[in-house]
Amino acid sequence: MDTDKIIENLRKDNSTNAVKRTEFVEFMENIGDPYIVLICCILSLRTNDKTTYPASMRMLELAKTPDEMINIDTDTLSKAIYPVGFYHNKAQQIIDLSREIVEKYNSKVPDTIEELVKFKGVGRKTANLVLTKGFNKPAICVDVHVHRISNRLGYVCTKTPEETEFALRKKLPKKYWIDFNTLLVTHGQNICKPRQPLCDKCSINKFCKKIIK
């Protein structure tokens, strides 16, 4: 499979507006702040981008640093981020996590997966996204889109997102790691959908084995 050509075509789709990024994806792509990436990613879990983006903006009006966030009460934050999924639990999680960052990490988000996953409720997907979008470090963030498309292409053969991450770490050239999530998420939201993918509009159709699980 021609990995270089696949990435080239997906990048061209993004640059020519052949596909449209959601406001949330665009925001996460350009923010460059590890703490904001982290807390916005927490909001996005089990919540669609259309709901997550305005909730993130309301949250950031209250606080943009862990030192500011620990002074926000849970009810105030809960109201700001509603109606994201599990909004009250996420509000408490963000405040508790912020306090831990202040007290244990001198108000700075750690820049390794090993340290990030120590935070309650932070898994490898979130940790990898913080590394790529917050620190601009090579990592592979695997969400449902990356997992689905990587398998549908036949690039990997895995059963879970975590298996996909480790398979991609072995196979995908490191120079593509940072971009991979954004490219496949955008492709998955616009073209390679879970059901009824738009194969006739797909720029990487000829490389795809169309493995549907």
Description:
This protein has 213 residues and is mainly alpha-helical. It folds into two domains: 86 residues, Helix-hairpin-Helix base-excision DNA repair enzymes (C-terminal) (Endonuclease Iii, domain 2); 103 residues, Hypothetical protein, domain 2 (Endonuclease III, domain 1). 60% of the residues lie in helices and 0% in strands. The protein contains twelve helices and no strands. The longest helix is centred in the middle third of the chain and has 18 residues. The radius of gyration is 18 Å and the shape is globular. The model has no long low-confidence stretch (mean pLDDT 96).
Describe how the helices and strands are arranged.
Elements: H1 3-15, H2 23-30, H3 34-44, H4 49-62, H5 66-69, H6 74-81, H7 87-104, H8 113-116, H9 124-135, H10 144-153, H11 161-171, H12 177-190
Helix pairs in contact: 1-12, 2-4, 3-4, 3-9, 6-7, 10-12
List keywords for this structure.
2 domains; mainly alpha; 213 residues
Gist of the model:
With 213 residues, this protein is an all-alpha fold.
Major sheet summary line: none
Spans with pLDDT under 50 lasting ≥5 residues?
none
- The CATH topology of the largest domain is Endonuclease III, domain 1
The tally of helices reads 12
CATH class category of the largest domain: Mainly Alpha
Secondary structure category: mainly alpha
CATH superfamily of the largest domain: Hypothetical protein, domain 2
State the shape.
globular
